[in-house]
Design a protein that fits this description.
Number of strands: 10
Mean pLDDT: 93
Structural class: alpha+beta
Radius of gyration: 21 Å
Strand order of the largest sheet: 3-4-1-6-10-9
Largest sheet: 6 strands, antiparallel
Strand content: 5-15%
Helix content: 40-55%
Length: about 425
């Protein structure tokens, strides 16, 4: 879950709001398509690394947010300390926090994977050193293995989210406060290849989720599931977390979905941010029901609405792959290199779509059973070999590629099997 900074309801004049208001549903759909799917030659790569944070030597001890703020110093996000300068890490990566004070670094996108690797490693090493000085360390899995979920950031957005998700069960609070993911960002590509790349991002998901799942233990308990993290996401709110069905018109389909998705929160100054029950963005534009009591929505409101989607793949002008469990700090490069290789050439993308079709859409099975899900290990092995054969396209040094190859093959050959 990418953290968005809270912002107050606009205080501009009525004329300013009218000037920026979305006129109708069609205008909203066009705006979504324009900002979520930007076309051009695939050029940039990005990665966002989330980690749970623990007291060194006592990982089950509740995290002290004041100590975390002391450790991060000028890098502390304003969601924890509003007065903080929120300075990026030395190599440029901004720091953000999830509701349970999981820490996230969002590396600046790079044209070369080697440059992205250098940037992330520099900022990650700096972050680890800062935390160590205060007796803190990063977790090594996609879910807090030692503590129950507890919200520690007191922002109106997260308070409204917690209230909204509570009636649905424990998935929402667990996702918000106990999980950590590895998010990989790739360009959507030229207009004539976007649909194929969008499909590949989804189709490779279940086998990659199973291959890199590591969040079986949560709150000191063996859940029996390969990725308890992704199951928590799926149990949050289906309209917000279900996978898209890849089609020929991703931008149009996403635009229609965003119009029909209920608001999760509604930023409005000092008042609670709870959204009217069942109010979709299309309702808001049209002034229907409870929307008649609200001002007309703007493009900024729609941008905020887009940030409340927690799908396996989220379009943000680029494609954000959100389904991988966080990896231990020194092991993030292998999955990023694999995904980079799989997207490097059109022919490889097309082959991904062909090879992964047998396990398409099997997110819950992958999360519950990992590679023990029927057919999942075969699909993962097939995908892995395709990616390994394309690792030279990543531009990484030969010795790095050799290390990654060895590690990936060891993972598929020696991976632990999970029973449903």
């Amino acid at each position: 879950m990418t953290t968005m900074h809270d912002f107050p309801e606009s205080s501009g004049s009525v004329s300013d709001l009218d000037a920026r208001a979305l006129s109708n549903r069609a205008a909203g759909e066009r705006y979504v398509a324009s900002v979520c799917f930007k076309h051009g030659p695939p050029r940039l790569l990005g990665v966002e690394l989330e980690f749970t944070v623990h007291h060194t030597g006592d990982p089950a001890r509740p995290l002290d947010p004041d100590l975390l703020a002391t450790a991060l110093g000028p890098h502390t996000p304003r969601t924890l300390r509003p007065e903080s300068p929120a300075v990026p890490l030395p190599a440029g990566s901004p720091v953000s926090l999830e509701p349970g004070c999981q820490v996230e670094i969002s590396a600046l996108p790079q044209a070369a994977l080697a440059d992205l690797h250098a940037t992330v490693e520099a900022d990650l090493a700096h972050l680890v050193a800062l935390l160590a000085e205060s007796g803190l360390e990063l977790g090594e899995s996609g879910i807090d293995a030692h503590r129950p979920p507890l919200r520690r950031l007191r922002t109106p957005r997260y308070a409204a989210m917690e209230r909204r998700f509570a009636p649905l069960g424990k998935g929402g609070i667990t996702m918000m406060c106990s999980t950590a993911g590895l998010q990989i960002c790739v360009d959507a590509g030229e207009a004539d290849q976007t649909a194929s790349r969008w499909a590949a991002a989804h189709l490779m998901g279940p086998p990659l989720l199973a291959l890199f799942a590591n969040s079986r233990v949560h709150d000191g308990r063996d859940t029996g599931h390969a990725s308890a993290r992704w199951l928590a996401v799926l149990e949050t709110e289906p309209v917000r977390t279900r996978s898209a069905e890849p089609g020929a018109d991703p931008a149009g389909e996403w635009g229609r979905r965003m119009m029909d998705t209920p608001l999760m929160v509604l930023p409005r100054g000092d008042r609670p941010w709870d959204a009217p029950e069942g109010l979709t963005f299309a309702d808001w534009i049209g002034g229907h029901g409870a929307a008649g009591m609200l001002r007309r929505p703007t493009a900024a409101d729609l941008d905020y609405h887009l940030s409340t989607m927690f799908t396996p793949v989220r379009p943000q002008g680029y494609l954000e792959l959100r389904y991988l469990d966080a990896q231990p700090p020194g092991q993030w490069l292998a999955p990023v290199a694999l995904v980079t290789a799989l997207f490097a050439r059109r022919s490889t993308v097309e082959e991904v779509n062909r090879r992964c079709a047998p396990v398409a859409g099997r997110w819950a099975e992958a999360a519950r059973c990992g590679l023990a899900a029927p057919g999942m290990a075969d699909a993962a092995r097939d995908l892995l070999e395709l990616g390994i054969s394309a690792l030279a396209d990543t531009g990484l040094p030969a010795e790095t590629i050799a290390e990654i190859t060895t590690g990936l093959r060891a993972r598929i050959d020696g991976s632990r099997r999970y029973e449903p």
